[in-house]
Give the backbone structure.
Amino acid sequence: MSSLIGFLSLALAIGINFYLLISRYVFKFQKQRFKFFVRVSSLLTLLSFFSLMYAYVTSDFSNYNVFQNSHSNKPLIYKISGTWGNHEGSMLLWLCILSIFSFFFSFTKNIEENFQKLTLIIQAFLHTLFSLFIVFTSNPFLVNSILVDEGLGLNPILQDPGLAVHPPILYAGYVGYSIVFSIAIAGLFQNTDNEWLYVAKKWSLISWTFLTGGIALGSYWAYYELGWGGWWFWDPVENISLMPWIAGLALVHSLMMVRGEQAIKKWIVFLSILCFSLSVFGTFLVRSGILTSVHSFAADASRGIFILLIFFIITGFGFLVFLLKEPKKSNTLNLLFINKVSALVINNILMIIATLTILLGTIYPIIIEVLYNKRISVGGPYFNSTVIPIMIPGFLLMSIAPILSWQTNKIKNSKKYVLGFIILSILVFIQSYLLDFNTWGFVGLLLGFWIVLASIIAIFSYYKVKLNLKYFKIINPHIAHIGVGIAIIGITCSSVFQNELDFNLNEGDKFKVNGKMVLFEEVETTNQINFQALRGKFLFDIEKNKSKKIEAGKNYYPVSKMITSEAGILHQWNKDIYFILGDQKNNEWFVKVLINPFVSFIWLGVIIMVYSGLIAVTRR
Amino acid sequence: MNRIIILIPLIILLTICIFSLIYLLSDKDPNKPPSALLNKNVPVFESSSLYNDKEIIKTINIKNKKTLINFFASWCSPCKIEHPLFFEIREKYPDLYLLGFNHKDLASAAKKYLKDDGNPYDFVGVDSDGLIALEFGVFGLPESYLINEDGKIIYKFMGPITKDVLKNEIEPLL
């Protein structure tokens, strides 16, 4: 029943969107009616999504999708998150978020009516494309042809609280760019004033903030769930999310220039189209199954071709409009040796190069396989040695960029900065020299600390401290950059200074980690609702009274016959101690302990970035 | 000049789409990468029989025989799907040596499975810790390898063998 409601409301939503698309030419609508229909179609899509969720929650195995991906003895939260833990459901979530964005956009005020209408029509166009894709190739409402009372289960790796939130937030980021895309295209068609740039700025900030949160959640999830001890693997799917993120960052910064009357409209339009294209391209690569990783659910050529077509239509349409309706000549840029405009231009160029570098690394294996029928894999070494160096000058620049002037070459308080930089370099150099010197470690730490320091100098020497919202809005760019600086420190420490220890232990053995005694108490097997848990129990720092318990082990999921590893992590503010329980051989357990210094800084940095993204949204 | 720059995104788009399309149409399944082991010597292995610990099979034992190696387990449901085909192969190609590796399985469960569904294999080797599968680069069960008389891997298939695969891909090599 719920499947039927879901399918019908989806079908009705398609109908309405189609109606909206042709309305411009066939029916003459009043604006109010038009918006009404947009909202109704959004709500219908939402209803369709919730019907599917209902089928999951009630374990309605007459729905084929539920049968394939769920199991009745799964905890409720994984029944809910199971809705998007599969290809069909995740595409419906995609569509649902697209609708939500249209819904909220239809309430935007201070925007010219015709312009808003045109934007919503383009949204309706996108909605139609993706809903047709769902109906024809990935229908989640198919009826199960056999009568069963139990489902096949959900990939155990996806049974995690992280999964409940990571995809929806990430999708909100991806799909949020659809609004930016539609605004930019509508802007090209109408080619009116610059008012739409402000609207675009707000929405691109929203999308970027969601994307940042989504990527970070994914990383965090990989960190504690995959049990490899790292949080970023240059996995193709990670790269795919990084591309719109960097392009989106460039977009947000370009939109900054609007305030200095220095907007390069053409560039902004280009970036807006690019961000959404990269999002759709990412969807294509993952959903077509071209890329295999923990993220791909199924490979199916017809789906791939359909979504490739959508990607081609959207991107081709975007860039074609861009080609034909080129924006009016904008003001010439006031480029000086070092002012805000030139800093922003350099930053944009670097980010685009970084995006293209990642794009190349991601599609290179496809091209090689088509040409030479060889399978190669482009991984960490390529990205580390190309993307990171490209970003370094940008990081250097960002420390001072917010305080540069729009019009002149002068930097106020430049002496403070020079002095600060020299002292900091010496300190970091001494610190690195005393520990084992590592070039990347030195560069990373210097950059990170420099960004933080320069931003703090700027905050205190330019603005009077006041504790009100306005003050926080003014210093917001600096805060965002402090977040990046802190994240860079965390990234550098946790990757360059990671320490790995291997042990073969019997139960009851004691061993030393980082100068502290650890007791390997025992290994215990317990039965949980939907899995069997094998846990090695460790007591950390037994010489003190307050020793800490750590459990690391594996889960065995009988329904899908899969084993997942569950790392035991002891979080401290300056390091994570990461326990992995390996296999047992001759009564000895293999235990790997990783010491990841300052991982918490990465998450802290991200939280700061998300915070300042939210603050920036409220700022005009 | 300006026009040409604006054209670049479209050109890149077209290139990406063309390559992706060829990739999709050429039926390249990323789940089935061209094995790095193809045309290489079969990995060295040693395994005891499921039915008798003392009976050992080694790489040397399959020299000079055309061999089909199949990794299976009683807990693997796709294995059940392809299972009947091995009896067909057995009947049609009596000279082909059928070697099954029982992967990460309980001996009792495996024996029951082969009793219920029948045992088409000439030899069932035990790979309880999965080390042999590791040597072969097994990705998921079931997986099959065709070895020629010179001990080279000439074909590899991931997933359950179907009639089509048997007819179009394996039989021409037999």
